């Protein structure tokens, strides 16, 4: 493990709580461990790490995120999300491949949704025209993927941009309809934090975007 990875992991374990860990384990199931660290502690740990290791460039940031994600512990994986969110400015469309791998293994709204809304969406929105076109082609592929978590991420990615009054509403409508049309019979969902077969991940995502954008832009219609 890298020095920065060791620093983050050790700090997260110092902030652990056996009570929170037991509660988290009950929600997430046996496939994902938990230290029982709070979300505030996770964010603070990543912030401290970035101050301590200021020399981390794009390759080091993405490698560290993969290192954190590789161990199936909730706090480590959320730290990977926060790390990417904190260094969006160094990412580009090629990093969507790595993020896609994270989304395929997240299997939890608590991990998948921040990746989509706080990492993928702002990453795409910040790209130049050529890079954005390539990134949107990747999201278009996600909308046709059998993995419902990827389709959900593609639908939710533009939420922040749309909510702020920017973004392409017509593109969102087309993407949402495409995501809803694929595999309408059901897909992977979560009950009590565990991955199960159910319906609703993509429809739920569409409903959330419509509800949140509607608060600020009620004139828009689906």
Task: Give the strand order, joined by hyphens, for the main sheet.
Answer: 1-2
Helix share bin: 55-70%
The end-to-end span amounts to 47 Å
- Total discrete domains: 2
Overview of this structure, please?
With 222 residues, the chain is mostly helical. The chain folds into 2 domains: 1-90, Leucine-rich Repeat Variant (Alpha Horseshoe); 107-222. It is built from 12 helices and 2 strands; from the N terminus they run αααααααααααββα. It has helices at 3-14, 18-28, 39-52, 58-70, 74-86, 96-106, 109-125, 129-143, 148-156, 159-163, 169-181, 201-216, and strands at 187-191, 194-198. The chain has a two-stranded antiparallel ribbon. Helix 4 (58-70) runs antiparallel to helix 5 (74-86) and helix 7 crosses helix 9. Mean pLDDT is 91; it is low at 185-199.
What's this entry about, in short?
This protein is mainly α.
Keywords:
222 residues; 2 domains; 12 helices; two-stranded antiparallel sheet; mainly alpha
List the helices and strands and how they pair.
Layout: H1 3-14, H2 18-28, H3 39-52, H4 58-70, H5 74-86, H6 96-106, H7 109-125, H8 129-143, H9 148-156, H10 159-163, H11 169-181, E1 187-191, E2 194-198, H12 201-216
Antiparallel strand pairs: 1-2
């Amino acid at each position: 493990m890298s020095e920065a990875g060791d620093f983050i992991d050790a700090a997260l374990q110092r902030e652990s709580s056996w009570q929170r860990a037991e509660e988290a384990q009950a929600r997430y199931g046996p496939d994902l461990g938990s230290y029982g660290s709070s979300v505030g502690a996770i964010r603070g740990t990543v912030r401290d790490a970035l101050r301590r290791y200021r020399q981390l460039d794009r390759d080091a940031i993405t490698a560290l995120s993969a290192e954190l994600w590789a161990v199936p512990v909730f706090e480590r994986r959320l730290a990977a999300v926060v790390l990417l969110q904190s260094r969006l400015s160094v990412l580009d469309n090629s990093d969507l491949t790595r993020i896609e791998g994270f989304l395929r293994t997240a299997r939890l709204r608590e991990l998948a949704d921040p990746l989509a809304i706080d990492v993928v969406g702002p990453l795409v929105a910040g790209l130049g025209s050529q890079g954005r076109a390539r990134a949107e082609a990747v999201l278009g592929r996600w909308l046709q993927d059998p993995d419902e978590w990827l389709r959900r991420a593609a639908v939710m990615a533009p939420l922040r941009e749309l909510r702020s009054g920017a973004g392409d509403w017509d593109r969102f409508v087309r993407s949402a309809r495409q995501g809803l049309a694929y595999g309408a019979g059901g897909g992977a969902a979560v009950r009590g934090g565990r991955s199960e077969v159910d319906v609703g991940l993509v429809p739920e995502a569409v409903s959330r975007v419509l509800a949140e954008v509607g608060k600020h832009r009620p004139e828009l219609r689906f």
